[in-house]
Amino acid sequence: MQKIPVAILGATGAVGQRFISLLEGHPWFEVAEVVASERSAGSTYKEATNWVLDGYPPTDVTNLIVQTLEDDLTSPVVFSALPSSQAKEAEFALAQRGHVVCTNASAYRMTKDVPILLPEINAAHIELVDIQRKNYGWTTGALVTNSNCTSTPVAMSLAPLRQFRPTHVQVVSMQAVSGAGYPGVPSLDIMDNVIPFIGGEEDKLTKEPAKMLGTFNGDSVTPFDMIVSAACNRVPVLDSHLVNVAVRFAEEVTVDDLLAAWENFRGPDDVANLPSAPERPVEVAYAQDRPQPRRDRMAGNGMSAVVGRVRECHAVDGFQYLALSHNTIRGAAGCSILNAEYLVAKGYVQQQTLPNAQTIRS
Asked: Which domain holds residue 127?
């Protein structure tokens, strides 16, 4: 069966490489176009890329000729790993030309008619695409974001707890160096050190989870009613962000209630059957010293959030726990791919026939 061609913007960067790695052998998508800076234009992907992931670039991508943002792309689906400064203009223009753009950039996350989509927790937000198409006169175009990579474990861990009405949330992050891109933080700054500031991150953490956990009301998203404070730190870990969450609830709740909510959480059936969806969006680690980045970041092939160390917290008159997710898979490229799969499944991508919805789980 014919696969859907996709383009990757920022294809030579670390997140672009993660897209290419995750799309190798994908049952629905094939990488047809790679886009990078003008200095790489005209080179093959192999020539233009300093591959920083394990192994080597997939052979079916290495001979693709690198294009620029000025070129006319033909792929119906575009994955963006652009910096926000470039994304603002380029992504909207591509959606206007009829492409379905799934982006990691922050430029449009808080725009009223653009969803921050994590399908297991806010599948209904996909209907904002209909609002976009009405607002801008688009027939096939769309713009869908995924969250900041540190907001991801916060939102995923809180989603099953919405029934208890969280009202106040305090987050302290321990963020991997890969979140800063490649080459990222200088080694003399991060080795034997923790950097207690990451520009722009705390503001995103106080706003994005409320939108992701909010309710689609027919023309926009009503944010979840909670107050969030955040302190963000860069730590000497390669991949995965770990957050300490302290939360107060409006409802009476116990540790056992929280554990049961996480254990029973699955998300909608039409999301669970998508190729990149993990069997368990949230996994519980019961050992006292888990979750840990090195041991837990690949849960669900890097697509699950892992929670643990839940306990009462008298400082907030509530509870405290740890949550972890892989920042470049679930927090970046993997989530964009899952979003694109959901857009295809819901009919937002023009394609007559799809391959069988087999999974890519190991």
From this structure: 4-147+332-345
Residues taking part in catalysis: 149, 241
How far apart are alpha carbons 24 and 59 in whole angstroms?
A: 9
> Whole-angstrom Cα distance, residue 345 to residue 354?
9
Asked if residue 242 lies in contact with residue 157, where contact means CB atoms within 8 angstroms, the answer is: no
Tens of pLDDT, residues 21-40: 999 999 999 999 999 998 99
Residue 353 placed within a domain: no
Rg (alpha carbons) of the chain, rounded to whole number: 20
Question: Both 248 and 141 in a single domain?
Answer: no
Looking at the structure, tell me whether residues 157 and 229 fall in a common domain.
yes
Torsion angle, CA of 75/10/292/280, rounded to 10 degrees?
Answer: -10
Using CA atoms, how far residue 14 sits from 11, 19, 54, 345, in Å, is 8, 9, 12, 28
273-292, pLDDT tens digit by residue?
999 999 999 999 999 999 99
pTM: 0.95
Coil/strand/helix, residue 297 = coil
